[in-house]
Amino acid sequence: MSIIEVFHQHLHQKQRFSQNTIMSYIRDVKKYIEFLERIGIKIENTSQATVITYIIDMQKNGKSNSTIARAIVSLKVFYEFLKEQSIVDIGKIEVDPPKLERTLPQILTKDEVEKLLSCPKEDDIKGIRDKAMLEVLYATGIRVSELISLNLSDINLDHGYIICRNKKRDRVIPVGSYAIEAVEKYLKYSRPYLARNKEEEALFLNFNGSRMTRQGFWKIVKFYATAAGINKEITPHVLRHSFATHLIENGADVRAVQQMLGHADISTTQRYLQIANVKLKEVYQRAHPRA
């Protein structure tokens, strides 16, 4: 078994790590090991200097500060593991991550959201499903990983809410009437034809009858963004950003938005307040006669 496979098993045993975090650590460490092979150094012979050399190499190759910062975190976890396994102990990695520029997240305008959500055809199985997924994502602001993890028991259409289950804490999030209508239609006309196994608990299914994947839904978003003629780099997370920004623009309390998004730190949520303020300033500049 390779060191990467052992490290992978080790991470799975750590309850604080999500699947996405684990895969991120594995990708970063694989790249580091490829670097070591390229310069001819074995893992057991590495040192603080090796890590610093790798960071410098990343900088020379034009890697972004965020990529480098993430790699440093991954290597710290990796070397903790190597120490536990008595493979090598280089001590605490004394490399400070580069300062990250706080860029405002990409969002869609309300008109762009309307165009995107109106794209799926509601006269076939796929269109009905896609419409329901997009509506729920924008209505609740949940992450794509949380969307595809929803089970039938996690959505209450009569009372208009979903339960977003998390290792740390479950969140109860209200769902609007448009999303409720879209899901009701999906459950009546689409899901019964997709579900090959009547015991399947997943809410949203692919054409194999199994739970929708991140990659599958990412392709769905890209397809409809192109069909809607939206000339922006759109990912499922852009709908989450749009959800939060549009709520705050319409007067929602920042702490309420924080709770719905599941942010541990309110400063993360306050980025959306910045976007709203920027847009207000733009409106002022355009409209005020003495701006």
Your description of this structure?
This protein has 291 residues and is mainly alpha-helical. The protein folds into two domains: 3-84, Tyrosine recombinase, N-terminal domain (DNA polymerase, domain 1, Orthogonal Bundle), CATH 1.10.150.130; 110-286, Orthogonal Bundle (hpI Integrase, Chain A). The chain has 13 helices and three strands; from the N terminus they run αααααααβββαααααα. It has helices spanning 3-13, 19-39, 48-60, 65-84, 110-117, 125-140, 144-149, 177-189, 191-194, 214-227, 236-249, 254-261, 266-287; strands spanning 155-156, 161-164, 171-174. The chain has a three-stranded antiparallel β-sheet with strand order 1-2-3. α1 (3-13) runs antiparallel to α2, α2 crosses α4 (65-84) and α3 (48-60) runs antiparallel to α4. The radius of gyration is 23 Å and the shape is elongated. The model has no long low-confidence stretch (mean pLDDT 84).
Helix-strand string: HHHHHHHEEEHHHHHH
Fraction of residues in H or I helices? 55-70%
Portion in strands = under 5%
Show unreliable segments.
none
Q: How many structural units, i.e. domains?
A: 2
Kindly provide the name of the CATH class of the largest domain.
Answer: Mainly Alpha
Q: Would you tell me the overall average pLDDT?
A: 84
Radius of gyration: 23 Å
Distance from first to last alpha carbon: 67 Å
**If helices are DSSP runs of H or I spanning 4 or more residues, what is the number of helices?**
13
What is the assigned CATH homologous superfamily of the largest domain?
A: Intergrase catalytic core
CATH fold call of the largest domain = hpI Integrase, Chain A
- Overall structural class, as computed from helix and strand content, comes to mainly alpha
The count of strands amounts to 3
The CATH architecture category of the largest domain equals Orthogonal Bundle
Pfam families: Phage_int_SAM_1, Phage_integrase
Organism: Caldicellulosiruptor morganii
Family: Belongs to the 'phage' integrase family. XerD subfamily. Belongs to the 'phage' integrase family. XerC subfamily.
Subunit structure: Forms a cyclic heterotetrameric complex composed of two molecules of XerC and two molecules of XerD.
